Amino acid sequence: MGTRVEKLVKWLFSTKAVKVCPQDKPYWYTSGTIGPYYINTHFLYGSEEKANELLNLIDSIKTDKYGCPLKLLELVRENYGRDEIYRGLIDEMYGFITEALPVGDIDYISGGERRDWFFSLILADRLGKPHITLYKDLSAVVSTGKEVEKGMPDLEGKRVLHIADLITEASSYERAWIPAIEALNGKICWSAVVVDRKQGGEEYLRSRDIHLFSMIQVDESLFDHALSLGLINDDQYLLISEYIKNPKESMKKFLLEHPHFLRDALNSDEKTKERATLCLEKNFYNVII
User: Fold this and answer.
1) CB-based contacts of 18: which residues, under 8 Å, 6+ apart?
2) Domain map of the chain by residue range?
3) pLDDT by residue (tens digit) across 15-48?
4) Rg (Cα) of the chain, in Å, rounded?
5) What torsion do the CA atoms of 165, 170, 176, 181 make, to the nearest 10 degrees?
6) Of 162, 139, 164, 137, nearest to 149 (Cα)?
7) Edge-to-edge strands of the sheet including 140-143?
8) Strand partners, 134
9) How far apart are the first and last CA of the chain?
10) Cβ-contact 72, 61 below 8 angstroms
């Protein structure tokens, strides 16, 4: 097992960035489906509490588009100095990027609102590259470690590395990040992410001639490592393995084998009841209670 992968798996579990359910209690997702794990990569900031505090702070300063990048960089620098896991992750990601990418060919590093900024700003600082702070409204602000450029930059012929915490289907890239950079005449040539959920994002980026580099992928190998490190048990591993092979059929099988699970959810707290009701309305698993 590679040292970098082993460290990353331990950090993902210790911060609850990856959280696995007990074998008989899958999680309810917002979509009304169920599954055996949650992934919140931004918890690698040190903990769920610290990550949520930073998100709340971002929400309070992001309307000041020119002031936000430097304020945020100062905060993540402070956390880098204090938090062992966050510092370890950033150091490993720096090593990963310098080993895997042609750093000399990178003109700018970008990160998108909001969770990308946990990682992109400090890595741009470490790599000595100007950072493009991308907002959901497709506006962009360029900054270095000490100053912010006023006005919209012209990135004619410039090559950009987009850094993100997580990639799923690449919908944010399609909707916002790629168009925002193209509007400035630049080109995202690479993207580096902590976690690739293997849900089509890499294929989409490839279709746009963007090379994806992920530190770890959500597949059986991640949970092989977790099992070998004693972070999950055999029953949890089996549930995850079946889910990865066929999410819909594995959870349908679970519901058929545990008929009380859906009934209990309908009589649970308001959020769980809402998701269970949506599951039945959408008939995701074709089960009758």
Assistant:
1) 12, 37, 38, 39, 222, 226
2) 3-39+230-282, 41-218
3) 999 999 998 999 999 999 999 999 999 999 999 9
4) 20
5) 80
6) 139
7) 140-143, 131-134, 108-112, 159-167, 187-196, 211-217
8) 112, 140
9) 44
10) yes
* Longest alpha-carbon distance in the chain: 60
User: What percent of the chain is helix, strand and coil (3-state, nearest 5)?
Assistant: 50, 15, 30
So what's the pLDDT on residue 79?
98
Closest C-alpha among 80, 6, 87, 17 to residue 47: 17
Q: How far apart are CA 140 and CA 237, in angstroms?
A: 42
CA distance 63 to 61: 6
The pair phi, psi for residue 45, each rounded to 5°, is -60, -15
Torsion of CA 168, 174, 178, 184, to 10 degrees: -150
Architecture of domain 41-218: 3-Layer(aba) Sandwich (3.40)
Residue 51: beta bridge partners?
none
Q: What is the pLDDT of residue 287?
A: 87
pLDDT digit string, tens, across residues 55-91: 999 999 999 999 999 999 999 999 999 999 999 999 9
Report the run of H or E that residue 60 belongs to, with start and end.
helix 48-61
Count of residues making up the chain: 289
Q: What is the pLDDT of residues 134-191, one digit of tens each?
A: 999 999 999 998 899 998 889 999 999 999 999 999 999 999 999 999 999 999 999 9
